[in-house]
Design brief:
It is found in: Membrane. Keywords: Membrane, Transferase, Transmembrane, Transmembrane helix. The chain is α/β, with parallel strands linked by helices. The chain has three domains: 113 residues, no CATH class; 127 residues, Rossmann fold; 185 residues, no CATH class. Helix content is 46%, strand content 13%. The chain has 15 helices and 13 strands. The strands form four sheets. Strands 5-4-3-6-7-9-8 form a seven-stranded mixed beta sheet. The protein has a two-stranded antiparallel sheet with strand order 1-2. Strand 6, helix 7 and strand 7 form a beta-alpha-beta unit. The longest helix has 38 residues. The radius of gyration is 28 Å and the shape is flat. It starts with 6 loop residues before the first strand and ends in an 8-residue tail after the last helix. The relative contact order is 0.08.
Length: 487
């Protein structure tokens, strides 16, 4: 979508600078030709990463072809290609969020090529190869890899100069304006600010009538602007310590944005300038912000969920069938209880449980906090809740992908709204898929317990996530399965 018109911002009329086109549709309406990137939609496919793979693989093949014919074993070629691609991937050399120079990558690329050749030569017939031939092959491989990657990066820089990447600037409004103005003065940097998201909303009223980029006053407006303008980069300036801002940045990252932290002012002390992933953008020091555990956690955690939930559904099938039959005989039809809960990134889903209580109305089901001690429940229903057997149906939610085995417990929309206002850390719990059990639950925070304590444990779990931590929580949950009260 393109536009060259003045757009009204949430804080008053502000004009859009030339070259910084920005479109913000009315609330609740999507721009024509654009869809909300929810489940089932993807960003346009990018070709930079496959081009880098091709450059590295082609360079490895060229180096192998320089070997004498008796040593051109197909297995050696395969090992060289896979080894180089694997080491480069582990070193983030296929990260397309920045465009490095050829000389910047030279030590990392050449060093890994030498390591792969040394490993292959040590455990293959290449041990008998003359040293001169081996050194020549390695040198050609290094030169070809650096030249190929330099060509890919040059094409990317040229494309970014012709069509800069739209970006949102997040942070204190005064600092965000200064950084955005500096970036607009440097069109060759490859980033074009199209909007500001102030984290000091109390001073937004002071910006009324000021010319400049539109100021977005809410997370919803930032997301709509992101969708309608194809924003792929978010620049964070100033202190990014507020819980609300952290939750918003996690939401923007979930939409496929690359997050960069910019140092708007030079540090006065304590900085050695040797930060991993650092660089500069139009003279501002920057570093890439990566959600902790997101890169490997998404795959590893999902594999664990599918394997264990599928196995447990098969093993627990007879138990679920017996419980359902007893409930059907004692309480009549309708043994499965369905209820809307809020999951990852605030998306609602339908959670399944065995019915242990029949609410008087839909309003009671959505707003009544706890029924664990309800006198109207039968002894069998109390038994199901005390042993958490009524939760076993949630294994199907895990298998489908609505939930995870381990994560913050999902809550109803009514209480999510209440708790989000009362407890600053509550919205941050939705950075990860909700779970059947979690760090809070194994510490006794189940049922009618402190929401503040639950928030603290849930956010600590997400911030320090590891696959081994999930395994430990599952083992501790299994050990306590028949003792705690149901949630």
């Amino acid at each position: 979508m393109t536009a060259e018109s003045t757009v009204a911002s949430p804080t008053g009329p502000q004009r859009t600078p030339r070259g910084a086109a920005f479109v913000l549709a009315p609330h609740g309406r999507a721009a024509v030709g654009h869809r909300h990137p929810g489940r089932g939609t993807r960003r346009p496919r990018r070709t930079a990463r496959p081009a880098l793979w091709l450059a590295d693989g082609g360079a490895a093949l060229l180096g192998a072809l320089l070997l004498p014919p008796p040593h051109r074993y197909p297995l050696v070629v395969v090992l060289l290609v896979l080894g180089v691609l694997g080491l480069n991937r582990r070193a983030w050399l296929y990260d397309t969020s920045a465009v490095p120079g050829a000389l910047d990558e030279l030590p990392a690329v050449c060093g890994r090529i030498v390591v792969v050749w040394a490993a292959v030569a040590a455990f293959s017939p290449l041990r008998s190869l003359p040293p001169t031939a081996l050194v020549t092959a390695v040198a050609v491989h290094c030169a070809a890899a650096c030249a190929g990657r330099a060509a890919v990066h040059a094409l990317r820089r040229r494309a970014l100069r012709r069509r800069p990447c739209p970006a949102l600037v997040v942070g204190p409004l005064a600092v965000a304006r200064r950084v955005a103005a500096a970036l607009l003065r440097q069109p060759d940097c490859g980033v074009r600010p199209v909007g500001l998201v102030g984290d000091d909303l109390e001073v937004l009223g002071e910006a009324d009538g000021e010319p400049g980029l539109p100021v977005l006053a809410s997370v919803q407006e930032a997301r709509r602007a992101l969708i309608q303008n194809g924003v792929g980069t978010v620049l964070v300036v100033g202190a990014a310590t507020r819980v609300e801002q952290a939750a918003m940045l996690s939401g923007l990252a979930a939409y496929g944005c690359v997050l960069w932290e910019l140092d708007a002012d030079p540090p006065s002390y304590g900085m050695d300038g040797c930060r991993r992933g650092a660089g500069h953008l139009a003279g501002f020091s920057r570093r890439l912000l990566r959600p902790r555990g997101r890169r490997l956690g998404g795959v590893g955690k999902r594999v664990l969920d599918v394997v264990l939930s599928g196995s447990l559904l098969v093993l627990a099938g007879p138990v679920l069938l017996v419980c359902a039959l007893v409930l059907r005989v004692m309480d009549g039809p309708g043994v499965v209880f369905r209820q809307e809960r809020i999951g990852r990134d605030g998306r609602p889903f339908t959670m399944l449980k065995l019915r242990t209580h029949r609410p008087a109305s839909a309003h009671e089901a959505a707003t009544r906090w706890s029924v664990a001690d309800d006198q109207d429940m039968s002894r069998f229903c109390h038994f199901l809740r005390r042993t958490s057997l009524d939760e076993l149906l949630q294994l199907w939610n895990v298998f489908r992908g609505d939930m995870s085995l381990v994560g913050p417990r999902p809550e109803r929309p009514y209480f999510v709204a209440q708790f989000s206002q009362a407890h600053p850390g509550y919205p941050a719990r939705h950075r990860m898929r909700t779970g059947i059990t979690g760090l809070a639950q194994i510490h006794g925070l189940r049922g009618d317990t402190s929401i503040e304590d639950r928030c603290r444990y849930d956010n600590a779990y997400i911030d320090n996530w590891s696959l081994w931590q999930d395994v430990c929580i599952l083992l501790r949950t299994a050990a306590q399965f028949v003792r705690p009260k149901g949630s």
